Amino acid sequence: MIPIARPQMGEDEKQRVWEAMASGSLAQGPRVAELEEQFAAFIGVGHAVATSSGTTALHLALLGLGVGEGDEVVTVPFTFIASANSILFTGARPVFVDVDERDFTMAVDQLEAAITPRTQAIMPVSLYGQPADLVAIGDIAQRHGLAIVEDAAQAHGAAIGERKSGSWGAGTFSFYPTKNMTTGEGGMITTDDGELAERVRLLREHGMKVRYHHDIVGYNFRMTDLAAAIGLAQLPKLPGFNDRRRAIAARYDAELRGVVTPAVRPGVRHVYHQYTIRVRDRDAFADRLKERGVGSAIYYPIPVHRQKPFVALGYGDQRYPVTDRLTAEVLSIPVHPSLSDDEVATVIGAVNETAAELGSLEAATAR
Ligand SMILES: Cc1ncc(COP(=O)(O)O)c(C=O)c1O
Question: For a disulfide at 40, which of 48, 175, 261, 301, Cβ 3.0-4.6 Å?
């Protein structure tokens, strides 16, 4: 079976983790600081603050911006639940805007209608490795005096023109094992705002600049040096990983038939955390792919506003028609950098044969 993800762990990772273990620096230490410096340089921002996960990065970024009780943050319902949960953690209320059918990111033409006097921030999600339309969102944010927290958990190295995801306002990343680079578990906040970086550092460590002198109520959201050691081995390989993902995606774009392939906006560098097609009869499609030896996954089968905790909060009756349709049609197929050319050909054959059996999505839409 060709798996949907395959983390790349090599000798460099082993060596660096072993060095960290042998040094005795196991919790946050010099390797975390080194990874922060290198990641900030990679994204092209002044500051990067490492955290224990992508979820805690989102949570801290919002707290650092002063988001809390009584505030609203605008985000999308077509995402992993952590985006919206991080808003709830602060006491603020998520306000959802539907996504664009073509690129799966925030529908910018619907954004302004969701902004109220309570809105403090906009949280676009750069889903599957394609940056949200941050140029347009940045303009709207500026006009309304709002902060941006880009959920770039899936977009390491993605860019609009030369400007990378994570360099608008605050960006947050995840280093979960399936991501374009990993630290096991881990996250990162990136920003050019020195004061925000300072606040999130304080919040990350129990509000403590001087040992056991606590200025504010904070958290333990630190990354370990063991995790950072893995990250230091992965980061130099990230551009190569992304190039391979993009090359595989280009073959899929050219050779897949009978399914809707993902659209990329002009001038955008998509890094294909996922290659997500839209298919007819999605569950049967996934079963047939499996029979043909190809793993696949659904990101995400239930939109956030229909998840139980959000239904309990009263979001269940809200309507996001594009999100609802996409959750019924999307299917991600393997695009990880370790796929061989033969495996890529197997995936293409399996998708095309299955689409021929089940009918193309265009045919389904036309009915
Ligand atoms: C869009 C999105 N946001 C947030 C997260 C949360 O990251 P983590 O799993 O590292 O907490 C993820 C990771 O799965 C994600 O895909």
Answer: 48
